[in-house]
Write a structure and sequence with these properties.
Order of helices and strands of chain B: HHHHHHHHHHHHH
Helix content of chain A: 25-40%
Distance between the termini of chain A: 40 Å
Distance between the termini of chain B: 38 Å
Shape of chain A: globular
Number of domains of chain B: 2
CATH architecture of the largest domain in chain B: Orthogonal Bundle
Strand content of chain B: under 5%
Number of domains of chain A: 2
Oligomer: heterodimer
Radius of gyration of chain A: 19 Å
Shape of chain B: globular
Radius of gyration of chain B: 24 Å
CATH architecture of the largest domain in chain A: 3-Layer(aba) Sandwich
Order of helices and strands of chain A: EEEHEEEHHHEHEHEEHH
Number of strands of chain A: 10
């Protein structure tokens, strides 16, 4: 747990716009340790997704570096498993084929076809969708699609799991269910996770640390909140837990008092 | 080419007319559910089965059309009436595959020859247009390069290309095929390119995040994502091609449904011209429907 695993080192992000340069992120440094679950929280437009995209490799930072397991990230790659907000499953492939596309890419060269298929099975079993393997995305509910997305990200045994508001598009009940699922999966796999969210409860429930981002432009880290609640966590038991309530209040305080947005 | 929009219209009304009928039948499941409730609405029971109006409407439409035709024919002029045309059609279709020399063949041969020309010209257009569409859709520079050419040439009547075809190929048959090729090409290029440009960013991000090879991206993402657009292009092309072949054959002669129309005009056999019009319409409808079935097979929603 003490090994620095994902290092974000003085990352700046400046976008060139028609009105001149726009500084989205200013001097962001963050170390994430192996097996840690870290959330990025902030108001929309604060650049948290930009930061995640830099770690994903889809964006290149204007300044600074990101290292994963001591290697610099220079572009997207299958050492990071990404779960997109809107599942991004390919509609012409079944669940199995969607996951297989990823697993085949990473293990296809070194493992037999049957072994890769076994990995796909396992990944889908892990998200409890073994029974829906041969369904197409349009036959699934939003929550199930997102679970396939998680299975796809996990099937490549990534060094770190990157989640971009993974449950933002789901209804509250499905979201709660999937949060519990995610906790179980992360515990079972020992994954390192970086998640973007704007949901205070989600951040406190799932994370070991919550990184609070200030409002843009030139957003940066406003504070880091350690969530040392014991695991496994139970949302119902936590609802009355004093520590939980205090942490939640602290997050709300940051978001709605210190970083109050002018009427958006 | 003033005939072009006119034929488009005769092809489309059947579908348009089905529209409202469709809407009314779509209400029925709800009504049926209501009828399974304790108090069945009275009017549901007294109503005819829901397929009946859907079946009757087109029949009534066709009957009105034939009646109107009969009235106009009665009123004078040289338009043959429906009955004599029907007898003539029975005669024509009783022996569709006879051959009495190069210029006198059965209607079956004429239709097949025309379809063959469309098939070859259209196939060649697909072979050229689809890859070109992919490249234009993928690379901005190529798109900007091709845009003025396509914009200028697309609205040109395909028949304007016929003299150039005759000049280059020095024969009627390849010139007709070449005209089909030209007219099928534009919809194919444009639709494929639009499809490539409309691939959701998310899909490409999946590819980037996984670092998929170009070949895998093409097979698993680009091609399936563009396929529905491609089929739309194919459908538009084949519709245009079938419109154009009749006109092209009128000009080039030989065997073919278009030439047959012209030949029967020279023979002053108006009944045969009407038969040809219906034949062209029905074959065109069949082509269109086949494409719709194909498109449905490859839609993912």
């Amino acid at each position: 747990m003490s090994e620095r695993y994902l290092q974000i080192d003085k990352v700046r992000m400046v976008f060139e716009t028609r009105k001149g340069p726009f500084c989205a992120l200013e001097e962001i440094s963050l170390d994430i340790y192996a097996g840690e679950f870290v959330s990025l929280i902030g108001h929309s437009g604060c650049g948290k997704s930009t930061l995640l995209n830099i770690v994903t490799g889809l964006l290149e930072p204007s300044d600074g570096h990101v290292f994963l397991a001591n290697r610099e990230i220079t572009g997207p790659g299958p050492d990071r498993g990404v779960v997109f907000q809107n599942h991004s499953l390919l509609p012409w492939l079944t669940c199995f084929e969607n996951v297989q596309l990823a697993a085949e890419r990473v293990f296809g060269a070194t493992e037999k076809r049957s072994a890769v298929k076994e990995r796909v099975h396992r990944a889908l079993e892990l998200v409890q969708l073994g029974h829906a393997e041969h369904k197409y995305p349009h036959e699934l509910s939003g929550g199930m699609k997102q679970r396939v997305g998680i299975a796809r990200a996990l099937s490549i045994e990534p060094k770190v799991l990157l989640l971009d508001e993974p449950f933002g598009a789901l209804d509250a009940l499905t979201r709660a269910h999937l949060q519990d699922e995610l906790m179980r999966i992360v515990t079972a796999t020992g994954s390192t996770v970086l998640m973007v969210t704007h949901d205070v409860d989600e951040a406190v429930l799932l994370s070991d640390r919550v990184v609070m981002m200030t409002n843009g432009p030139a957003a940066t880290i406003g504070g880091i909140l350690a969530i040392d609640l014991p695991r496994p966590r139970d949302r119902i038991a936590l609802a009355g837990n004093k520590q939980y309530v205090a942490l939640r209040a602290e997050l709300l305080e940051f978001l709605y008092r210190k970083q109050m947005r002018e009427a958006a | 080419m003033s005939a072009r929009p006119a034929i488009v219209h005769t092809l489309k009304p059947p579908r348009v007319e089905i529209g409202p009928a469709d809407a009314s039948t779509q209400l029925h499941p709800a009504m049926n559910q209501a009828s399974s409730a304790p108090e069945p609405p009275l009017y549901v029971r007294t109503r005819a089965p829901e397929w009946l109006p859907r079946l009757l409407a087109p029949i009534i439409g066709l009957a009105l059309f034939v009646a109107l035709w009969a009235i106009i024919a009665k009123a004078g002029g040289r338009l043959p009436d429906p009955v004599s045309t029907w007898h003539s059609a029975v005669d024509v279709f009783s022996n569709p595959f006879y051959k009495k020399g190069p210029n006198d063949q059965g209607i079956g041969w004429n239709v097949l020859t025309s379809l063959g020309r469309v098939g070859i010209g259209f196939g060649a257009a697909a072979l050229v247009g689809i890859p070109l569409g992919f490249m234009i859709g993928r690379f901005r520079f190529l798109s900007d390069m091709a845009a003025p050419i396509i914009s200028i040439l697309k609205p040109v009547s395909p028949l304007a290309w016929l003299p150039i075809g005759l000049m280059v190929f020095k024969a009627a048959n390849p010139a007709a095929i070449y005209v089909i090729f030209i007219c099928s090409l534009w919809p194919m290029i444009v639709n494929t390119a639009v499809g490539v440009r409309h691939i959701p960013r998310d899909y490409l991000n999946v590819a980037r995040v996984l670092n998929l090879s170009e070949w895998t991206i093409f097979r698993k993402i680009l091609f399936p994502a563009v396929l529905p657009y491609m089929i739309t292009g194919v459908r538009l092309s084949i519709g245009v091609a079938w419109l154009v072949i009749v006109a092209a054959e009128m000009l080039t002669g030989g065997v073919g449904i278009g030439f047959w129309v012209w030949d029967e005009w020279n023979n002053l056999n108006v009944q045969h011209i009407i038969i040809a019009i219906f034949t062209v319409g029905i074959v065109g409808l069949a082509l269109e429907q086949a494409m719709i079935v194909l498109a449905r097979r490859f839609s993912y929603e």
